[in-house]
Amino acid sequence: DAGVIQSPRHEVTEMGQEVTLRCKPISGHDYLFWYRQTMMRGLELLIYFNNNVPIDDSGMPEDRFSAKMPNASFSTLKIQPSEPRDSAVYFCASSQAPTGPNGYTFGSGTRLTVV
Amino acid sequence: KQEVTQIPAALSVPEGENLVLNCSFTDSAIYNLQWFRQDPGKGLTSLLLIQSSQREQTSGRLNASLDKSSGRSTLYIAASQPGDSATYLCAVVYGGSQGNLIFGKGTKLSVKP
Fold first, then answer.
1. Of B42, B40, B41, B48, which Cα lies nearest the Cα of B77?
2. Which residues of B touch A31 (CB under 8 A)?
3. Is the CA virtual torsion A51, A53, A56, A60 positive or negative?
């Protein structure tokens, strides 16, 4: 398996523009998580899905953020409109069973810069 | 509040030294604890995962231990090498959650040749 695949690796956009981050989880993993990493706050959970259904979106900072999982092999995280404070590294992770022995597998992340 | 704490935030050691990284968590009811490595500008690589029923896990020069009663885990690195330089993150899935992973801020390790 190629692991968790995220695209793009880097994104630079102007304030006010829409940004869409993409994630392909490992096949067979029923859980998908979106995290954000900043120097100040470390890694924070934004939202996660189980069997394509959003379970907990309490970490989504505001209405400008939205996430979808239309099928088991694809998820998007969208920011509209983007702001400079959204600049961070966004990670996607998947898991077959988060409480089990295999834990999480993370993608390589998308480094977002909003200017 | 369920948190994970890692001390120190940074550590510098000479090559060849054995070292211990520390992680503490606020609730002994956990499903598992996972140690990750993150190189600058890169993603997270899973190193070791310890289930709640286990006391330790080993992989090569790495050994992770878990003491739920004291809310602590340690990552032991034997015979450190410059290639071990990275940030090490500890993360916990707390009991009662649906599986979300809560991270510490990490320990940035520098191994000097």
1. B48
2. 99
3. positive
Alpha helices by DSSP H, chain B: none
Please give, rounded to a whole number of angstroms, the shortest distance from the CA of B1 to a CA of chain A. 14
The percentage of residues in chain B with a pLDDT greater than 90, rounded to a whole number, is 88
Contact present, B50 and B32 (Cβ < 8 Å): yes
Pairing of strands B10-14, B107-112: parallel
Cα–Cα dist A36/A42, whole Å: 8
**Contact (Cβ atoms closer than 8 angstroms) between residue A6 and residue A22:** yes
Question: Residue A1's pLDDT is what?
Answer: 67
The span from the first CA to the last CA of chain B, in angstroms, equals 41
Q: Do B98 and A93 touch (CB under 8 A)?
A: no
A85-102: pLDDT as tens digits: 999 999 999 999 888 888
B102 and A107 within 8 Å at the Cβ level: the answer is no
Question: Could you tell me the end-to-end alpha-carbon distance of chain A, in angstroms, rounded to an integer?
Answer: 36
CB pairs under 8 A between A and B: 64
